[in-house]
Specification:
heterodimer, A: alpha+beta, Dipeptide-binding Protein, domain 1, D-Maltodextrin-Binding Protein, domain 2, Dipeptide-binding Protein, domain 3, 15 helices, B: about 325 residues, mainly alpha, MetI-like fold, 13 helices
């Protein structure tokens, strides 16, 4: 045997030994999805906090009685169905048979009762529902019953809501936790199980497929409705805070999916053959400017109206997502564009050429005499930071006596809770952004609340808005809901509790071999490798 | 010597107490509210107040400080406001990556910088000296994150030799552990190399002028022996001091390096905790860092006796 033959034989033998190992490693890799989420997962309780990252964690491991389809209609998920009786004052929901939590315990109606009771303490929609619930009880292991003081047409919508906090079902032992305290375990009945032993907050979150999960046979898959089929054995959330590092990791294939790359990376990804970008959700996020209604100058309706003449939604939106017109939609109103309640009625003050001089004149007419105002904003979160910068420029051009206070978001959220006047550390205006589902309807839409001291930060008192919101909950049909939503928008544009600054799309980037993603928040059923 | 070590270790107790008081007070007066962060953008002020009460953040300063000190005295660093995990567990999860990064950086920096400084002093005024000094100026001037991005772009993205990010535990093998640390260690070590090389050169230049070096040359000692046996040992005290002081530099640099290379270490834990106002975690990590720093200084003081027999404690 010659040396060359010996070498060839040796190489062949080595390859034969190594190939199965390589193939096994390849298969394991294919069964794992490596994902970079938008933020670090700190809290595991999606009822305790409304952080979107915790909501997404909740979607992994918990299930809901009803899901919401892309048509915004509820569809049974854990529920087999429901029956309304006694003039719609009693609703009985029946669970599908065979549902189990990740700890092996069966899902019972008492678990649902405890979970919904806890959720009703924290969710705005739930709080509204709680005002009409006379009794919520478990009839037996598979049936729970709502006994209502009066009909609540949105009952099934509410318990299938996609607004954070989502009414996830937990085991009763966890759901009995005070809603203002965190649950101690992450045990659900959803398509993935949380791997507590591999959890390293700030670094890695691991989920494994729940082999015992039985997807609903009903409906088609969209948003949180339809069968939740998990196609990966393991999903790893890699927390990478540095955008450039996450982008590089996606390019090299170290990760598969980067949830929310900053806009500057879109062009880079467009030039990379193995990566595709798409809107994470076709429904856009909403940007807003919020006034403090307790103190001058913005406790004056005329001054708030004057600001509208200077607001260019496009300026604000391009600061967040760049100049690609496909990424934003200017001149949008109170509700998320593309959803049933959205309209452009009453938006005239935001349309047409923006006129700083006219706004200045309106300010003078309103009696603005150079009182100080304070803009509080962050520098560490993309959208509110960009909005604050554009806002500061607008107020400067309006000649307002502005004190600009830029800090981090943690400080802003504390400071905006202050109801004190400016001389005692108060504020006049801040900017923020909301996810698309928050502005689907009036239920979770905080900036339209007009209930004074109990309203969202800024505390406007606009009784008419509260009346319209209450009427919306009681509306018997979609047409009435729509009419009320139009009225709400008209009142908002007149009273200006806040200023809608338009809507923008968040992009997501992933390896090209990932297909069948369910659009909406980052969800991990349906998606698979081609 | 033993009595000295015991005295120094005991002296860390008041130092740590002052650090604890300082850290707690600083966080108390700092703006920001974890309850508001937890409650989210949609929360009402009442929700925020209820969460604040449930976390005990509405209690008076002295009550909170007393409870914290009492817990620390029992070895309990508390529980993270956000993750509900014990701070000690979170530190344990994060300490290996940071220690690994610091150790690799330290080894790399000392093994590169000391010979660089020695050679620069030996070849003073030549192009070698100028090159070393030029590198030192560059090393001081270029921020850690810039070096990090350049390295990642070149060696990970373009050449595909090393991973862009992440950390693999030492228990998974030497090479997987090391390959994730090479680029971060070079990035973090650049400024450290510059610092040590400059100090080594300056100290060596001074030592090389001493009479005993002239004597060594006169008796025919070789250049290598003069540089590394006679001169370097006598120049070691200031060099070791700078290496010790540089540990603080490393801790600060680790925060940035860990973010750029997505290493799940204590630096990132600290930054995340600060941004969220996770007080127990911030307090725990800062206490740990101060303890490490005090300990490093003690070790440096003890090393003096090794390099200079005239020093006695």
């Amino acid at each position: 045997m010659q040396r060359r033959d010996l070498l060839a034989a040796g190489l062949a033998a080595g390859a034969a030994t190594a190939l199965p190992r390589i193939a096994a490693a390849q298969t394991a890799r294919n069964r794992t999805l490596r994902f970079v989420p938008q933020a670090n997962l700190t809290s595991l309780d999606p009822i305790w906090t409304t952080a979107y990252i915790t909501r997404n964690h909740g979607l992994m491991i918990f299930d809901t009685l009803y899901g919401t389809g892309s048509d915004f209609q509820p569809q049974p998920q854990m529920a087999e169905g429901h029956v309304f009786e006694q003039d719609n004052k009693v609703c009985t929901v029946t669970l599908r048979a065979g549902l189990r939590f990740h700890d092996g315990e069966p899902v019972r109606a008492v678990d649902c009762v405890a979970s919904l009771t806890r959720w009703m303490r924290r969710s705005p929609m739930g709080q509204k529902l709680a005002t009409v619930v006379e009794e919520l009880s478990a009839l037996d292991d598979r049936r729970l019953r709502f006994r209502l003081k009066q009909p609540f047409p949105l009952l099934i919508h509410a318990i299938g809501s996609v607004n954070a906090p989502i009414p996830f079902i937990m085991p009763e032992r966890l759901a009995r936790t005070d809603p203002f305290q965190q649950v101690r375990e992450a045990v659900g009945s959803g398509p993935y199980r949380f791997k507590a032993d591999e959890f390293n907050s700030g670094s890695m979150v691991v989920y494994e497929r729940n082999a015992a999960y039985s997807p609903t046979p009903a409906g088609t898959r969209s948003l949180t409705a339809g069968p939740k089929v998990a196609n990966f054995d393991r999903v790893e959330w890699h927390i990478i805070t540095d955008a450039a590092t996450a982008a590089s990791a996606l390019q090299t294939g170290e990760i598969d999916w980067y949830e929310q790359p900053t806009p500057e990376f879109r062009q880079l990804f467009a030039r990379t053959r193995d990566i595709k970008t798409e809107p994470i959700d076709p429904l856009p996020n909403a940007a807003i400017m919020r006034f403090n209604h307790l103190h001058p100058p913005f406790n004056d309706k005329k001054i708030r109206q004057a600001i509208l003449a200077a607001v260019s939604q496009e300026d604000y939106l391009t600061a967040i997502v760049g100049t690609d017109p496909g990424m934003f939609q200017a001149v949008t109103g109170v509700f998320t564009p593309g959803t049933p309640l959205a309209s452009d009625v009453g938006l005239e003050p935001l349309k047409g050429p923006r006129d700083i001089d006219r706004a200045k004149a309106m300010l003078r007419e309103a009696g603005y005499t150079n009182q100080q105002m304070r803009l509080i904003g962050p520098t560490d979160i993309l959208a509110p930071s960009a909005l604050s910068q554009v806002g500061a420029d607008m107020f400067r051009r309006l000649g307002m006596n502005m004190d600009l206070v830029l800090t981090d978001w943690g400080t802003v959220v504390q400071r905006r809770a202050s109801r004190e006047p400016l001389e005692r550390g108060g504020w006049s205006v801040f900017y923020t952004a909301f996810g698309s589902y928050d502005f689907l309807d009036p239920s979770g839409h905080f900036p339209i609340r007009g209930n004074g001291a109990n309203a969202w930060f800024g505390w406007p008192t606009v009784p008419r808005l509260e009346e319209l919101r209450d009427a919306w909950f009681d509306a018997p049909d979609a047409a009435t809901q729509k009419r009320l939503a139009v009225d709400i928008q008209r009142v908002v544009m007149d009273e200006v509790p806040y200023v809608p600054l338009g809507s923008y799309v968040s992009m997501t980037a992933m390896r090209r071999d990932l297909v069948d993603r369910v659009v909406g928040p980052a969800m991990f059923w349906g998606i698979r490798r081609a | 010597m033993f009595a000295y070590v015991v005295r120094r270790v005991l002296a860390t107790i008041p130092v740590m107490a002052i650090v604890a008081l300082f850290v707690f007070s600083l966080l108390y007066i700092a703006p920001g509210d974890p309850a508001a962060v937890i409650a989210g953008d949609q929360a009402t002020p009442e929700d925020v107040e209820r969460i604040r009460a449930s976390l005990g953040l509405d209690r008076p300063y002295l009550v909170r400080f007393g409870a914290w000190v009492f817990d620390i005295a029992r070895g309990d660093l508390g529980v993270s406001i956000f993750t509900n995990l014990p701070v000690s567990t979170m530190i344990r999860q994060r300490i290996e990556p940071t220690l690994s990064l610091m150790v690799v950086t330290l080894i790399l920096a000392v093994s590169v910088a000391v010979p660089m400084g020695v050679v620069a002093a030996w070849k003073v005024g030549t192009w070698i000296d100028k090159f070393v000094m030029g590198f030192a100026v560059l090393g001081f001037s270029v921020p850690v994150f810039v070096v990090g991005y350049l390295l990642a772009y070149t060696f990970a993205l373009e050449l595909d030799w090393l991973p862009v990010q992440g950390y693999t535990a030492f228990s998974q093998g030497l090479w997987p552990w090391l390959e994730n640390l090479i680029l971060p260690a070079i990035a973090l070590g650049t400024v450290y190399i510059a610092l040590i090389a400059r100090i080594t050169r300056a100290t060596m230049l001074e030592v090389l002028q001493q009479d005993y070096i002239r004597t060594a040359r006169a008796k025919g000692a070789g250049q290598r022996s003069i540089l590394f046996l006679h001169a370097l040992k006598n120049a070691a005290v200031p060099i070791v001091t700078v290496i010790g002081i540089g540990i603080a530099l490393l801790i600060g640099g680790a925060v940035v390096t860990e973010s750029v290379f997505a290493i799940p270490g204590l630096g990132r834990l600290t930054v995340d905790a600060i941004l969220r106002r996770d007080y127990p975690v911030i307090q725990g990590v800062v206490l740990l860092f101060s303890f490490v720093y005090v300990l490093v200084n003690l070790v440096i003081d003890l090393l003096y006796t090794l390099f200079d027999p005239r020093i006695r404690y």
